[in-house]
């Protein structure tokens, strides 16, 4: 019972109704797919089955053959996520870092510089809207570092290369 709701999901004429289920993903051959980035809330969680691990989108993408999957473990605020993704893709494409190091460097940048989050979020090429449900206030501790809520939700599963 896991999946993605895509643009067109509300359109009754959309093929597949704009919904991709985890079950439909495992039937695909994604062995040539090196990286999947699921930059929405709670994309890395799922149902835990005794002795079988967690069933969710990450597992479905890996089962289909995707090498690396980045997903979030909790509700993520929009602006910090946009900032993180902007930095991640800059690291991946412009600095030619592997996915694991690109994510690590992006997370460190947000951790060390929480005041830059609003400006970095503007650098994200996609559109985003504050939808609520996650605390979007930029938080920093007494040491001036960002609260983990803002940068630590995203994890990479796979070899990271």
Spell out the blueprint of helices and strands.
Blueprint: E1 3-5, E2 19-21, H1 22-26, E3 35-37, E4 46-49, E5 53-56, H2 57-64, E6 68-72, H3 78-94, H4 99-112, H5 117-122, E7 154-157
Parallel strand pairs: 3-6
Antiparallel strand pairs: 1-2, 4-5, 6-7
Helix pairs in contact: 3-4
Quick structural gist:
The protein has helices at residues 22-26, 57-64, 78-94, 99-112, 117-122, and strands at residues 3-5, 19-21, 35-37, 46-49, 53-56, 68-72, 154-157. The chain is an alpha+beta fold.
Word description of this protein:
There is one protein chain. By secondary structure, the protein is an alpha+beta fold. It has one domain. The chain is 31% helix and 16% strand. The chain has helices at residues 22-26, 57-64, 78-94, 99-112, 117-122, and strands at 3-5, 19-21, 35-37, 46-49, 53-56, 68-72, 154-157. A hairpin with a 3-residue loop joins strand 4 (46-49) and strand 5. Helix 3 crosses helix 4 (99-112). The longest helix is centred in the middle third of the chain and has 17 residues, at 78-94. The chain is globular, with a radius of gyration of 16 Å.
Gyration radius over CA: 16 Å
Return residue spans where pLDDT drops below 50 for at least 5 consecutive residues. Answer: none
Average the pLDDT over all residues and give the rounded result: 85
**N to C succession of SSEs:** EEHEEEHEHHHE
Domains, number:
1
Number of strands: 7
Distance between the termini: 30 Å
Structural category is alpha+beta
- Which descriptor suits the 3D outline? globular
Beta-strand portion reads 15-25%
Work out the helicity level.
25-40%
Largest sheet at a glance?
A: 3 strands, mixed
Order of strands across the main sheet: 3-6-7
* Count of helical stretches: 5
